[in-house]
Amino acid sequence: MVLDAKTFSAERVSPFYFEGDRQEAALREAAEVVTLKGEHGQRLSGLHFNRDYTTGLAIVWLTGMFEDLNGPAQRYTGYQLAAANPENPVLVINIPAHGGSDPLTAGQRREILKDKQVGLVAGSQAVAARTRLPGVNQIMGSGQSAGARLLPDFIVKAKELGIEPMALVGFNMAGLDKRPSIATALAFIVDGYLLQYKYHRGTANQKLDKAMQGFQDDMQRQGFHGGHNPVVNDYRIFRDEPSYLAWLFGSSPLSAGNGFAAIERAMDLNPYMQAQLVSSGLDKVTRWRRIEHQVGQLVEVYGDRMDWSVWPRDGHAMGIGPQLPRQSAAIKAVVDSLAA
């Protein structure tokens, strides 16, 4: 299948909702951050939706840098994924030092700074998913930006743990565009933060903004009043894990260009797994013009097991909370295609 830009545009997508008792349950699940047990006892913060569904295909969303569960955006992400796929268990998993998660382990820190790899972090997240969902035998990995870069390594570890990976769905995957770490960090600041205003303009985007505000209002009526100050949040992350400064500005896996090799490892290990990847044509973090040739080679190798779509009018800020119905609709389409 093809995740084409028109079908999943703000103009065409409507936010997903639960109703009645399912809505009350989903809001409670959105309000409760759960502690997941990763590798070697590492604690990772997470959200668990659709808890009454304990088997079947699980949808796991891996968050990226500075995307923690203290604020509303990731809670809304989980809610949208759950409402779009109401019969699938849904997990949202933070990376270390985010949202109350433990810091990096010594091994993870060494792998990141020395080897510019993220296999041990993703492996710990896979252990957390396996532990939380013991009855699940099939899994879909999903995420965006740094979270998407974790996906191939997550998939490999999940397979080792006896969970069959059925699909990898990533948006604006970082770690494909090889460049200096400082260039990636500055691009993230510009495109991920400063250009967010573009996603609040126009009737279609304002419709999505209103839906997320409605979710926050519903959460407040349930007694949840969690706040999120980006400056305070980022300070806490660097305080708890100072090596992330080196990750961003000196030795970043997100600038190493090794994401393609990770995708190949995951695809080769799982001969029936589908990969659906989306790049934004205006993304300044992973520049499409720099990776287009390698993408074409990869798609040629894996044929109908892989589609790599381009959403030409989007940038990296597509990943902000109000826009998540678009990604959730794309993920639902993949889930439906697997069941067909």
Description:
Strands 1-2-4-3-5-6-7-8 form an eight-stranded mixed β-sheet, sandwiched between helices. It is built from twelve helices and eight strands. The chain is 46% helix and 14% strand. The relative contact order is 0.18. By secondary structure, the protein is an alpha/beta fold. The termini are close together. The model has no long low-confidence stretch (mean pLDDT 94). Strand 3 (57-62), helix 2 and strand 4 (90-93) form a beta-alpha-beta unit.
In short:
The chain has 340 residues and is an alpha/beta fold.
Keywords:
single chain; 340 residues; alpha/beta; eight-stranded mixed β-sheet; 12 helices; 8 strands; 46% helix; globular
Q: Spell out the helices and strands N to C.
A: HEEEHEHHEHEHHHHHEHEH
The assigned structural class equals alpha/beta
User: Largest sheet, order of strands side by side?
Assistant: 1-2-4-3-5-6-7-8
Poorly predicted segments: none
Residues in β-strands, percent: 5-15%
Number of DSSP helical runs: 12
Residue-averaged pLDDT: 94
Gyration radius from CA atoms, angstroms: 18 Å
* Count of distinct strands: 8
Bulk shape: globular
